[in-house]
Amino acid sequence: MSSATRVAQSKQPQPVQPQPDQAEAVPPAVPPAAPPDGAAPGQRIPADYSSYRVVAARHPWRWVGTAVVALGVLAVAWSLATNPRWEWGVVAQWFTAQSVVNGLVETLKLTAISGVLGFVLGFILALMRLSASPLLVSVSWTFSWIFRSTPLLVQMLLWYNLGYLYEKISLGIPFTDVRFFEVQTTTLISQFAAAVLGLTLNQAAYSAEIIRGGILSVDQGQLEAAAALGIPAWRRSTRIVLPQAMRAILPTAFNEIIGLVKGTSIVYVLAYSELFYTVQVIYNRTQQVLPLLLVATLWYIVITSVLSVFQYYIERHYSKGAVRNLPLTPLQKARKFFATHAAVPNRRNF
């Protein structure tokens, strides 16, 4: 054996022999803790979090934004309450005056008649636009093109002055002298008739496109499947297409109705006593322009608010089948809010 090998072996660590006193100092093994009462051996015991305190998540920027908006709302409310030029006493005096209420009734009458007739005519025009007849498609497209391209004010004045173009309106057999009905145009086209005619035709042009878009939004595969099952065409349209198309039609249709409520104010050019014209007549006599305009504004807000409530519940009804859970009503949201926030202090006590 060489000297290098002997040196390498001498450098290897030698096992340490335990001393008698060190061997006695080793502690004995600790036996496993006994499981608690009712727990099987080896069962995992869940941690006890009953002493933990629930801490809400912090949203500092949300509170900053809320504070800024709250200050803005308070500033506007303070200005409305303290500025005497608003003349809230005059607003309260005229808000429920008989003349104003009569004008409000006329506004609602124009809205209801023009809205119903406009959407019925729009539905017919939409079906014509979707038909396979080139003539029906052309007539429907031309109608929508003309009445959407001209201002409503121009249409109103045109219908009111129709007697200048045609002295008499008659009903009979075309291209013959046979007449079943004939009347003076100025007698037939009154202020109310001109207003309804202008609003209805203008509304029909927009309604036709709204309804056509809603019908086209329904998957055509469903119609093919229904036809393959032998379902009649009328039932396919009323039971399959329209219920699904209503989800796309309703939001825009209610926007059109709300726009129609405000659009009735343009009838003042015909000197028809709707809400806005009535308010104009009153402030021209009393010179209280701003308070009377505020009266009309508040009534328009009331009408559109009621329509918005109807819109919410009707859209909620037609959302069945499109969502798993129907959206909560405002009353249900309020109940959930108070129930949730009433339970928070109880959780914080743990």
What topology does this entry show?
Blueprint: H1 3-11, H2 20-24, H3 60-82, H4 88-95, H5 98-130, H6 134-149, H7 152-160, H8 162-165, E1 168-172, E2 179-184, H9 185-188, H10 191-216, H11 220-228, H12 233-263, H13 275-286, H14 289-318, H15 330-348
Antiparallel strand pairs: 1-2
Q: Report how far the terminal alpha carbons are from each other.
A: 78 Å
Helix content: 55-70%
- Count of strand segments: 2
Structural class: mainly alpha
Strand order of the largest sheet: 1-2
Tally of individual helices: 15
Summarize the main sheet.
Answer: 2 strands, antiparallel
Q: Using only CA atoms, what is the Rg?
A: 39 Å
Beta-strand portion reads under 5%
SSE succession? HHHHHHHHEEHHHHHHH
If you average the pLDDT, what whole number results?
A: 82
User: What would you call the shape?
Assistant: flat
Given as residue ranges, the uncertain stretches (5+ residues, pLDDT < 50) are 1-5, 20-26, 346-350
Describe the 3D structure:
The chain is mainly alpha-helical. 68% of the residues lie in helices and 3% in strands. It has 15 helices and two strands. The protein has a two-stranded antiparallel sheet. β1 (168-172) and β2 form a beta hairpin. Residues 1-5, 20-26 and 346-350 have low confidence and may be disordered.
